[in-house]
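Figure S7 source data.
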Amino acid sequence: MLEVKNLSAWYGAAQALFDVSLHLGQGELLLLQGLNGAGKSTLLQSLIGLGPRVQGEVVLQHQPIAHLPAHARARLGLGFVPEDRRLFAELTVLENLLVAARPPASTAAASMAQVAGEKQQLDQVFALFPALKPMQKRRALEMSGGEQQMLSIARTLMTSPTVLLLDEPCEGIAPVLVESIVQALLQLKKQGMSLLVAEQNALLAAHADRVITLVAGQLGQHRTP
Ligand code: ATP
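Tokens for the predicted adenosine-5'-triphosphate complex:
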């Protein structure tokens, strides 16, 4: 699904990633670990096209994407859940979700298909995160950190990704909600989605197919949990 070959990244003259190569198969959950500053966020941002200056190959479903802008990569099925969630604080849960759905097409028939598609996508994200359903009219700023994280993941799912990258989705979240998030990610994996997750949480590590570790911008040991 996702193949990365010899990816290096620089902030100005400072190199943050050194020849990182990795493979993510369909339905695979790959966990990315590393100390603060090891380069985890830089790697995820480089893959989605929002990183610093990079060199190397990124191939999504056999298609080279390293030269494409972020919105084109997203359209090809690459989803990203950022560490800081980037929700629209003043908008409701439902509005945050609908804002991420594909823009309305111009013809009436296409618009109707769009509405039907959105309804189906909403049903899917509410099946995955049942806690969000009764909160549809709540503004994002009125939610707890864990609820916001669920909304952030749900919003990215509204873009129908096939490969999902998540930056520390369990960080600073109440254990009961961490459990919900981990279960949702495992459900997505079961549905065939490929997941690359930067995360230190032990619960997620226990369910990962493989764990890779970044050390000062270089991939260290690989292990199967
Ligand atoms: P954390 O767990 O703290 O988020 P991380 O593993 O995600 O850490 P990065 O944030 O990718 O690590 O940082 C990797 C290196 O790149 C660090 O040395 C960091 O100081 C540097 N870096 C990150 N962002 C920038 C930036 N915008 N400008 C310059 N250097 C940066």
